[in-house]
Amino acid sequence: MIGRLLCAIFNHRYVVLMQFSPTSRKIGCTRCDKEWAMNDSVRAFVPWDGEFEEMYKFIDQWPEKK
Questions:
Q1: Which of these, 18, 22, 53, 65, has the minimum number of CB atoms within 10 Å of its CB?
Q2: Element (H or E) spanning 57, and its range?
Q3: CA distance 43 to 37
Q4: pLDDT above 90 covers what percent of the chain?
Q5: What's the pTM value of the predicted model, to 2 decimals?
Q6: Residue 16 pairs with which residues in a beta bridge?
């Protein structure tokens, strides 16, 4: 709750959670734990949902666990 309030006032603290290609990645906020999908080719920055995970796994860009 406090994290969301801080993000509303001071903006998010973005970090890259996963890199899928040079132009697409999963972004997250260290303060409020929200996640987004970001794609530079189409200039998109949208909330992350399960459909993105399915899509990246389907096109074989999901990072393998080590």
A1: 65
A2: helix 50-58
A3: 11
A4: 50
A5: 0.77
A6: 27
Token digits of residue 20: 């899928």
3-state secondary structure of 64: coil
Query: Which residues, 6+ apart, have CB-to-CB distance to 53 below 8 Å?
Result: 62
Residue type, 59: I
Tokens 């970090």 found at: 15
User: Rounded to an integer, what distance in angstroms lies between the CA atom of residue 44 and that of residue 55?
Assistant: 16
Give the integer Cα–Cα distance in Å for 5 and 60: 37
CA–CA–CA angle 19, 22, 23 (5° rounding): 90
- What is the dihedral sign for C-alpha 14, 65, 58, 50? negative
Q: Which residue has the tokens 């992350």?
A: 48
The residues near 51 (Cβ < 8 Å, ≥ 6 apart) are none
